[in-house]
Design goal:
Elements (H helix, E strand, L loop, with lengths): L1 H16 L2 H42 L3 H21 L7 H10 L8 H14 L7 H18 L4 H20 L2 H10 L7 H21 L19 H31 L3 H18 L8 H8 L3 H6 L10 H24 L7 H21 L8 H17 L2 H11 L6 H18 L4 H8 L8 H8 L2 H4 L7 E2 L4 H10 L4 E5 L5 E6 H4 L25 E2 L4 H11 L3 E6 L2 E7 H16 L2
């Protein structure tokens, strides 16, 4: 009670003494530091848990524990989600976009910590996922709930949510620019003076937090030793095309297998099948264990052969074809390992797996070329870095995020030309093959995807319930013209829905259609309503997206359309109410 009283007093004091924009700047710094701490807890816990398990157990008991660890981790996570949280909500970037478009940017408070625990256990025991999406989810939930606590408006809460996500990215990789770009490109936050400064403050705060308190070996950093040379441009173009194809493959396989897991209603079946399959994949390819950043560091430092020697195929180290096929299979199987981990019940994302695939692809491309004995050679580490940006940009459909992420990880812009070239080509390639990314595909199908297109964004934010009008007087289908005239005398509307006893909508009556006979009292008992009603030009279902609603109005040129749910009458939507709500929301979204 005292807490509520204190909060109310503070809110009154704040409104009187601190304007909204200054207050949001303060909150953005707090959120940035909070997201940085969350990222530190994530990365440090997973790093030491994996180190403990691998160094103390795996070497002693051979690779067979790779079959066991993922099962343990996913089982603990499933128990946590189903029996402690009792919530099946997803902890990924798609859930953030859904919260923005359909939940007024409000995220459940437990996601601040539930994403942390679930992802630590999943990845710590070897789940082949990325920690970035859960960290971003936690940061976004932190921003959303802070905005809710201080009773800010929707637009401010949305901005603070983006600040949390931006700070999380900046904290994970020590890349503040990439964090801001991610918020603008993936979360589709409008770039304006009002939004840019808080995003900047949050990203810087998150990056500084991990830089000051994080362990150096946990951060993914790399110094470029070989400069970019212009003669490599044709090869970076080819790498861009290959990255686009790999991104398309990653997207299609992920969505397909994720759909199969969704059809399994029995959680035990998902767990047993998924965890067992993951264990087998990691047993065959230990590089799939965990996030995969150890593999990335080996590749970037020119020690890719160690990735091979740590597998059961190490006896074939001198066989060039087996070596190449090993890394090719890593690219092909990584997506299976990732989606299986998530489908079985683990918590994680696709950020790190995309970087993993890109690094292996870039290395393998340069390695095969260098093995051909040409006079010139390609830098395997440089191509691995460019491949990371290209595949990440392709999978997320966010080329700028990929470009700036790698540019900042390498502490310079030595590779900015090939990064821009290859990542852009990758994005164009995958965009031609698939218009939506993994994180937006399902949202787009449901009409819940926000975009930088103002019209589509407004439609995504609009809620059908808000534009349904229910002040229409219903007419029983067994009524007569006389009954109808009495109803008309009490109504201020010129449309009358005709329903039966179960409220099923059978048709509508227009006042203009009965105006000529409604004053002829001799016909009152002889004409039935069922003979006067007409079928509407279209029906709107309560589950329709706003884009579908607009399409139906455009196709029929109607001014009013009935809304039904399971064939039962709900109300009407008028074109005037629809456009009025649209204009109001557009002004709210675009106002500085």
């Amino acid at each position: 009670m005292k807490t509520k009283s204190f909060l109310s007093g503070f809110l009154i004091w704040r409104i009187r003494n601190i304007d909204d924009r200054s207050f949001i700047l303060v909150l953005s710094v707090i959120i940035g530091v909070g997201a940085g701490i969350i990222a530190l807890i994530f990365k440090t816990s997973v790093f030491h848990l994996q180190e403990f398990l691998v160094k103390n157990f795996v070497l002693k008991y051979s690779y067979f524990l790779f079959l066991i660890f993922p099962i343990i981790g996913i089982t603990i996570t499933v128990i946590f989600k189903h029996y402690i949280l009792k919530d099946h909500i997803k902890h990924n970037i798609s859930s953030i976009l859904h919260a923005i478009s359909k939940r007024n940017s409000l995220m459940k408070a437990h996601k601040i910590y539930s994403s942390v625990f679930g992802a630590i256990v999943t990845a710590g025991f070897g789940g082949s996922i990325g920690l970035e999406s859960p960290i971003i989810s936690s940061g976004a939930a932190l921003g959303s709930n802070i905005g809710k606590i201080f009773r800010l408006n929707y637009k401010s809460i949305r901005l603070l949510l983006a600040c949390g996500a931006s700070a999380a990215i900046a904290a994970i990789f020590n890349t503040p620019i990439a964090g801001i770009v991610f918020a603008l490109e993936v979360l589709l936050i409008d770039l304006s003076r009002f939004s840019l400064i808080p995003l900047l403050m949050a990203a810087i705060s998150g990056a500084i937090t991990t830089k000051l308190f994080g362990e150096e070996e946990i951060l993914l950093e790399f110094v470029i030793n070989q400069p970019f040379v212009s003669r490599d441009i044709p090869f970076f173009i080819i790498l861009g095309i290959l990255s686009g194809l790999v991104s398309f493959y990653f997207t299609k396989v992920f969505v397909f297998i994720d759909g199969k897991f969704e059809k399994l209603k029995n959680h035990s079946s998902k767990l047993i099948f998924g965890a067992a399959a993951l264990g087998i994949m990691i047993f065959l390819f230990p590089a799939l264990y965990g996030e995969g950043y150890d593999t990335l560091k080996l590749i970037l430092n020119g020690n890719a052969h160690e990735v091979f020697t740590e597998s059961i195929f190490s006896t074939f180290i001198d066989n060039w074809l087996v070596f190449v096929l090993f890394f090719l299979f890593l690219i092909l199987i990584k997506v299976f390992a990732t989606v299986t981990t998530i489908g079985a019940g683990g918590i994680g994302g696709i950020f790190a797996p995309s970087l993993f695939n890109g690094a292996v692809l870039g290395f393998l491309f340069a390695f095969i070329y260098n093995s051909c004995g040409f006079e010139t050679s390609l830098s395997e580490s440089n191509f691995a870095l460019v491949g990371m940006a290209s595949v990440l940009g392709g999978v997320l459909h966010a080329p700028l995020t990929g470009i700036f992420l790698i540019a900042e990880i390498t502490s310079g812009y030595e590779l900015i030309v090939p990064l821009m070239l290859s990542t852009t080509i990758s994005f164009v390639t995958v965009k031609r093959l698939e218009s939506n990314s993994i994180i937006t595909m399902q949202l787009a199908k449901r009409g819940e995807l926000i975009t930088h297109d103002k019209d589509k964004a407004v439609l995504a934010f609009m809620k059908l319930d808000k534009v349904i009008e229910t002040d229409f007087i219903i007419v029983p289908i067994e009524a007569t013209l006389g009954n109808l005239v009495k109803i008309i005398s009490k109504s201020k509307r010129n449309i009358f829905p005709v329903v039966d006893k179960e409220n099923i909508l059978h048709g509508i009556i227009l006042l203009d259609d009965v105006r000529d006979i409604m004053f002829n009292s001799e016909m009152y008992d002889n004409i039935l309503v069922r003979n006067l009603m007409i079928i509407p030009p279209a029906y709107i279902d309560k589950s329709d997206s706003m884009q579908n609603v607009i399409n139906k109005f455009n196709e029929t040129s109607a001014w009013n359309l009935p809304v039904t749910h399971n064939s039962k009458y709900v109300g009407f939507i008028s074109k005037s109410k629809l456009f009025s709500s649209y204009r109001k929301l557009l002004m709210e979204l675009t106002e500085e």
